[in-house]
Structures are given as C-alpha cells and as structure tokens.
What does this fold into?
Amino acid sequence: MARSPVTPTIPLDAKGIHHGHLRLPHSRDDSAWGSVMIPITVIRGAPGPTALMTAGNHGDEYEGQLALRQLALELDADAIAGCVIMLPAMNLPAVRAATRTSPIDRGNLNRLFPGRPDGSVTEKIAHYVATELVPRADLVLDYHSGGRTLDFLPFAAAHVLEDKAQEAACIAAMEAFNAPWSMIMLEIDSAGMFDTEVEGQGKVFVTTELGGGGTATARSVAIARKGARNILEHMGILDGAPEIGPTAQLDMPDARCFHFAEAGGLFEPLVDLGDDIAEGARLARIWPVERCDAEPSVLRARRGGILVSRHFPGLVQPGDCVGVVAERVDKS
Ligand code: CA
It folds into this structure.
C-alpha cells in the first residue's frame, strides 16, 4: 500500500510543548502545490501513558473544539506524566466550512475509517490518524455533539465490546469524564467510524454527545473542559483526582431507541430532551408544509424511556432521525 502523504511539522515523540500542523498536500485551482494544514498540539512530559484527544471530526460540533483549544494552551509539559496529542480540528476543511462533511470531497470523516493513503483528502486524514496517531495512544477521547441537525442531552459514551476487559476500561474512562449523563451507546451503523477503528486497535475509547444545533453553550463547553481534565487525571497524566459530580446512567439496548420520519414537513416535538416518554406515547408530529387541510403524521415512542436526542431544525425530511429514546439504568 502507498505511504501516507501527510507530514507533521512538529516532532510527535519529543519532550516539551509542540504546536504545529499535519500538512496534507492538496493540489487545487487556487493553490497548485497547496496543502491542508490540520492543527495539532503534542505535549510530552515525564514517561507515562498517551491520550489522543480529537474534535472537529464533524465540523459543525463545537464543544470539543473549544475545550481542546484551551487545553492546548494550559497544559505544562513539566507537570504531566505522559503525553497528550490534541487534534481540535481533525477534519479541518469541514471545520472551516462549519459543515459535518468536508467541502472538498463531501467526506464524512467518521464514516471513512480506516481511510486510504491514496484516497480522497478525508480518507487520507482518516488513514494518517489511524496508522500514526491511534497506535501511539492508550486512550482516545473523540468529542461529538449533534451538529446542525441534531441536539443531545450532554453525555459521555462507551460501547458494548466483545473484550469485556476493554469494555470495562472504556466504561471507567466514560465515568471519569463525568458528563451529566453516561451512555452505553448503540450506533445506527458502526462501519467506518473512528470509534470502531480505535476499539479494533484494542484502545480505551470514550466519545461524547454534548449538545448540538450547530453551536455550543457555556454549560456544554464547561462539561467538555472538565471531562478532558478528568480523563487526564484518571490516566495519571495529570496529578489529582477527577472532579466527580452526579451522572445518570443510560442505555440504548436495541434499535427501537431510534425514531425515523417517514414523511417530511414541519417538525413539532411533543416531548423535549430529558423528558420521560412511555412506549406508544406520541413523540412528535410532522405537518405537511404545502396544505392546510391535511392531518399531521404522528410518531409514537417505540420504547419507553428518556428523550436523549432530537432532530434540530424545524423541517424534517423522510428518513431523518427525529428522536432517540434511551433507557434509564438504576445502578444502585
Ligand atoms: Ca457527530
């Protein structure tokens, strides 16, 4: 297979604080020998484990991008035992365009792992991260939110894994992140996800969904910042104990959690994020846009639980995910 065309402008394995870029050649009309310059910070102190922290996997999700910008300026190499690699804008073209996917090739980075060294720009990013950065890491924290088309209760998440020791380590890291909600998450389709790649390499993986709607809030950014520091303390990279507040445990046991629109139109939510809903109860109505004499279509909850995610803009299209209902887990 071809070699990656990506070149880091900083050493990845040297002690100290290094801010630089992953330079990915991108020949185009306005720059014949141009590059995509993906920002990266590597902070390495005394010997210890390595955390890889990524955001901007989807360009329109902001909590992680903001938390990592600040963390990159705050961490002191002399005060850490181990290494922190930060990629706050992993899919930089998407971040610059404020879109989920890359405007260069429409690549959805989180569906293109393990990538290709000779593929599209987005595939080349995936390949470099998967082959050069993930192998260096003991733990990967990949920040997500709902982006422009979804909104979430703020949660950190881990997946059910075949390797139960690895699953336990992921759950422990999720609990250390200590978002207000902690989710055992089911994916609609895990093929090509960064999550799947990292877990497949046997690493500890934590992801988040911290809000959405194409912006962040003071509260959601604070959750993201605390979570990063807690993870570093949990790993022993930073001194001190994680700051642990209350968290509610949630589970997505099966595909009945997901609710998809069959008709398009005006989206009328009938429950809000954090509300409880009974199986069979009305979750949303969708009104046809073009006429006044038509009844709305009604979406009913396919399971009882708590609404953890909803479609964000006011219009839906057929096939849109309009709501996710998760199960509350009593851990006592
Ligand atoms: Ca996302």
